[in-house]
Amino acid sequence: xxxxxxxxxxxxxxxxxxxxxxxxxxxxxxxxxxxxxxxxxxxxxxxxxxxxxxxxxxxxxxxxxxxxxxxxxxxxxxxxxxxxxxxxxxxxxxxxxxxxxxxxxxxxxxxxxxxxxxxxxxxxxxxxxxxxxxxxxxxxxxxxxxxxxxxxxxxxxxxxxxxxxxxxxxxxxxxxxxxxxxxxxxxxxxxxxxxxxxxxxxxxxxxxxxxxxxxxxxxxxxxxxxxxxxxxxxxxxxxxxxxxxxxxxxxxxxxxxxxxxxxxxxxxxxxxxxxxxxxxxxxxxxxxxxxxxxxxxxxxxxxxxxxxxxxxxxxxxxxxxxxxxxxxxxxxxxxxxxxxxxxxxxxxxxxxxxxxxxxxxxxxxxxxxxxxxxxxxxxxxxxxxxxxxxxxxxxxxxxxxxxxxxxxxxxxxxxxxxxxxxxxxxxxxxxxxxxxxxxxxxxxxxxxxxxxxxxxxxxxxxxxxxxxxxxxxxxxxxxxxxxxxxxxxxxxxxxxxxxxxxxxxxxxxxxxxxxxxxxxxxxxxxxxxxxxxxxxxxxxxxxxxxxxxxxxxxxxxxxxxxxxxxxxxxxxxxxxxxxxxxxxxxxxxxxxxxxxxxxxxxxxxxxxxxxxxxxxxxxxxxxxxxxxxxxxxxxxxxxxxxxxxxxxxxxxxxxxxxxxxxxxxxxxxxxxxxxxxxxxxxxxxxxxxxxxxxxxxxxxxxxxxxxxxxxxxxxxxxxxxxxxxxxxxxxxxxxxxxxxxxxxxxxxxxxxxxxxxxxxxxxxxxxxxxxx
Amino acid sequence: xxxxxxxxxxxxxxxxxxxxxxxxxxxxxxxxxxxxxxxxxxxxxxxxxxxxxxxxxxxxxxxxxxxxxxxxxxxxxxxxxxxxxxxxxxxxxxxxxxxxxxxxxxxxxxxxxxxxxxxxxxxxxxxxxxxxxxxxxxxxxxxxxxxxxxxxxxxxxxxxxxxxxxxxxxxxxxxxxxxxxxxxxxxxxxxxxxxxxxxxxxxxxxxxxxx
Lengths: 772, 211
Hints:
Structural class of chain A: alpha+beta
Largest sheet of chain B: 11 strands, antiparallel
CATH superfamily of the domain at 405-464 and 620-772 in chain A: Multidrug efflux transporter AcrB transmembrane domain
Mean pLDDT of chain A: 84
Largest sheet of chain A: 6 strands, antiparallel
Oligomer: heterodimer
CATH architecture of the domain at 405-464 and 620-772 in chain A: Up-down Bundle
Radius of gyration of chain A: 34 Å
Low-confidence stretches of chain A: none
CATH class of chain B: Mainly Beta
Shape of chain A: elongated
Radius of gyration of chain B: 16 Å
Number of domains of chain B: 1
Mean pLDDT of chain B: 72
Order of helices and strands of chain B: HEEEEEEHHEEEEEH
Strand order of the largest sheet of chain B: 6-5-4-3-2-1-11-10-9-8-7
Distance between the termini of chain A: 40 Å
Strand content of chain B: 35-45%
CATH class of the domain at 405-464 and 620-772 in chain A: Mainly Alpha
Largest interface: A-B, 44 and 47 residues
CATH topology of chain B: outer membrane lipoprotein receptor (LolB), chain A
Helix content of chain A: 55-70%
Number of strands of chain B: 11
Number of helices of chain B: 4
CATH topology of the domain at 405-464 and 620-772 in chain A: Multidrug efflux transporter AcrB transmembrane fold
Number of helices of chain A: 29
């Protein structure tokens, strides 16, 4: 009666959970896909954190396209078409390459009134060196020489032709692209490539954004005509390719593992009951875990969802453990069977909860979600096995299992028979030797770029774009913080002087700073004095005479109190392309600018440029992410060790201290040997390997407990349950070793090795525990 | 700035086949192809009439055009400026000191220019006629060609109102009138065509762009 009451109460809970889940699903559950959401809340300096997030987001939303055709006009019109088509798409927020001459006019209108204080770097250096004459000669050569740059109006207002040089020195984000009638273009061999630079309106990691943008993009490209070539670069393409690959693998590996597991269970039991009742318990676990976590956290990260679901998956072991008891063939009723397996099941769940619960101790939101999701799900799955299955189960003895049981018993014999002592010793020594050799070669790899394993074709396109444009999309930058724009711009000017060396030596291919677009007020005033003293005063009269200007030139106001161009004015209506990305924050008392770095070949030489500049920091998002993964991995490793320790007192309640240690020995051995064996295979150890080890520990302890619980006729049957459970686990996780996605591959391979070792060693724990 | 380059190169491009005699389609003006390996030498006088200037800006000097290799344009008065243009780009120097260098990668316009020039040299006017309406008059001893840009949509790209080219055996005169009222006039004299390749000094100048 109590049993039925409990089952009913649990049913109501599950219905409640399913109802809540249905309610949430009706509103559309949005899983976080943004890696930034996994970052620990406390990462030190909040301004740095914000800058980091803003720049990473901005970079992630950028899409760079090169449209190429042998005919310049066709390339240009294709670029205009593509831009117009994509701007119509709701996935594109804007473009930085206005494909008309209009933008050049706007830039001209913005800068021209302040021309007296605007000097290209090279011109400034010449004037500082007192070589104003060289600038006058250059202007004359442009007037009298062949490619007459000067029109009359320009010469009249800028007789030394300083503005064209300033404009061509503006830090557009590429060392090879050149302004060409309002577009940025590069000519390579026989093809003109025109740049189309776009900003997405949504996050590139959102599947919905990917689908809509890439649909619109492919459609727009398809209408450009067959001989127009298109090269593309952007996080959204990589993310979409990754998602596509993951989907493809999910369907192939997922089908193989599902079909394999279902067939296995059907073949072993030759009944439908165990299959659907196992599936039911997993479903109950998933629904309860998901529902509870959504209620508890508000939303979930997709990474937590995936790991959580795999962790709950081990609930199938519990139902299999229960069902294999039928092979004992003593016609016991379901309640009796449950009573027999209950100690093993209960301990198994408790130790696993300890294992997952330890993840809660880390300050990482991702690990918290995984821990809560899987702990709740596993508990629910366990409850469904204990409360429901014996009520539903009409199962009888399964005498057909005898041959299978005797096969499973081979493993017992291997560990028990005295004449196999030498063999056991040899195995032990071999494992020890492999472990020692592997431990020496153990390396951790937290490089986030490797974990992504990007699409090869897209990588080739990226490489081509980088070669053509001279841009390196490293994502690294300097963060410049100051109390106001002027202070920040001055700092950037100092930084620019220091970066000149690395640029010259090739350590850095280029950089873009706000000061490159708008010099500081101090620099503008200094430039004016320089122009007045080194150019106008000594040379203007003679220059005007040589040119033969009939009226005095209309030079811009040159006094110290004349107005200067400010960053606020330059950014006001977005006339200057690429500048907006560089200004993160402009509020009273605090500004944050970004100096973007292109094509870094020597990080050390670049870093050193910021030394001693208070307020300038070098930031490398990829390295930060890698560090984050490293931190996650390290924390998870510590917690893994801690949870192994915490399991011991739990086991000691039933097996006493020494017995508990004996039961823990096989899983701990698997835990230690697996990384070593991975290292021997030349596989690096990653965060994902650690997550797999969390599973290996939980599952391995379960196996060892089951073996420790096994006595008499149940010994062989228990081992059969372990073999069955491990085979389904290997089918679902071990198969992942064949994934092309590096992270998934390491996860799968770790599972494959760890679980195999756990099964192999599990009887040893049982024997040692009872042998005391 | 590039429109002037185009205009002059076009004119010079036209001048080469003009030497070959009668146009194939009976119309006046150059049309036959010229084999590579020949070079054209000559002198030029350039007058730029700019608004707001007392007098035209006048310069004179020598030029050398070698099909497939490039153009050397050397102003001598009022002071020496050497400009070299090849498929690799453009370099300008004054008294041995470089004042401007533009690799072809930064001059997508140059590609169009080469298309048009190459077309004109081989008697294929299509590339040229895509950009300009071409009106040809006269006979092969005294011909006139007028080029008018087709695209008025983007004056920033090519602020040329009309280009007038006239000549006989060679191009004698080119006039470029711009939208703002500025105008350039070029006179070519003492032109000679030879089968000899460019001299060593000339070849060195042409090669200087690739540096």
